[in-house]
Amino acid sequence: MTRKPSVQLYSVRDHMNDREATLKRLADIGFTAVEPYDPTTDPAGFRALADDLGLTVSGAHAGALLREPDPAPVFEAVATLGTDLPILPGGIPEEDFKTHDGLKHVADRLNALAAKAAETGLRFGYHNHYWEFEPVLDGRHALEILADLVDPAVVFEIDTYWSSVGGADTPAVLERLGERVVALHVKDGPVVKGEPNVAVGTGAMPIPAVLAAAPADAWRVIEFDEAATDIFEALAASLAYVNGLEAA
C-alpha cells in the first residue's frame, strides 16, 4: 500500500519561527507526515507537538552527522523524533563524485555512519542533489556507482527533481535502484538550475512516471527549495495532485 505523502519542512523554513502554527497549518492542509531538517533542536518538544497534531515523522535530514565529531547524539535526537530514518542531505564535496577514487571515499564515510546508525537500531539514508548524477563514469551516473560501493544497509532518498536536473532518466534510475529507495523527494519545476519550484503537476517533471517507478512503500516527500508562489497554496495543490495520482 502506498504511503500518504510527507512534506520536507525546509519548504516552510521561513515560517518555522512559529513551529506550532506552521505544523498545524500543514496538518490542516491534509499532510499526515513531516520530514524535519533540524532534528537536534528540541526533538522531544517537536515529537510532542507532532503527536498532538497527528503527524508522523517520516524521516529527518541530519546534516549535523558530518559536522559533529560524534554522530551518536544526532542519531539519538532522530530516534526521539519517532523515526528510524536519519538522512544525510549533502555536505560531501562535489569533487568526490567525479572519480572512482572519490566515490570510494564517499562510500567509506557513508558506511561508517550506517554502522553507527545500526548500533542504535536506525537505518541510514543518503539524499542527492544534481552533482551525484551529473558525473557519468563508464556510462553510469555517479550515484548508481556509489550504490554498488556502499553497504546494502545504506538506503537512499532520491530527490527526483535534482536527479533530473543532473541529467538522469529518473524513472529508470528508480527502477534500477529498486528497494534501496525508501523515500523520494517529489517536486516540480522547469528542471533547470536556479529556477524556483512550482506546484507538483504543473512543471516539466514526469511525475506520474516517477511515482509509478518508485517502490510503493517509499515515502513520497513533497518539497520546495524555492517557491514561485505562496508556499502553502503550492503545498496544498501539490498534495492534492499526488493524492489524486496515487488513488487512480
Keywords:
248 residues, alpha/beta, two-stranded antiparallel ribbon, 11 strands, 41% helix
Write the layout of secondary structure elements.
Elements: E1 6-8, H1 19-29, E2 33-35, H2 43-53, E3 56-57, E4 60-61, H3 64-67, H4 72-81, E5 86-88, H5 100-119, E6 124-127, E7 136-137, E8 140-141, H6 142-149, E9 154-159, H7 160-165, H8 170-177, E10 181-186, H9 207-213, E11 219-222, H10 231-247
Parallel strand pairs: 1-2, 1-11, 2-3, 4-5, 5-6, 6-9, 9-10, 10-11
Antiparallel strand pairs: 7-8
Helix pairs in contact: 2-4, 5-6, 8-9
Structure description:
- Keywords: Isomerase.
- InterPro entries: IolE/XylAMocC-like, Xyl_isomerase-like_sf, Xyl_isomerase-like_TIM-brl.
- Residues 24-214 form the Xylose isomerase-like TIM barrel domain.
- It holds the Pfam family AP_endonuc_2.
- The chain has helices at residues 19-29, 43-53, 64-67, 72-81, 100-119, 142-149, 160-165, 170-177, 207-213, 231-247, and strands at 6-8, 33-35, 56-57, 60-61, 86-88, 124-127, 136-137, 140-141, 154-159, 181-186, 219-222.
- Helix 5 crosses helix 6 (142-149).
- It is globular, with a radius of gyration of 17 Å.
- The chain starts with 5 loop residues before the first strand and ends with a helix.
- The longest helix is centred in the middle third of the chain and has 20 residues, at 100-119.
- It has 248 residues and is α/β, with parallel strands linked by helices.
- The mean pLDDT is 97.
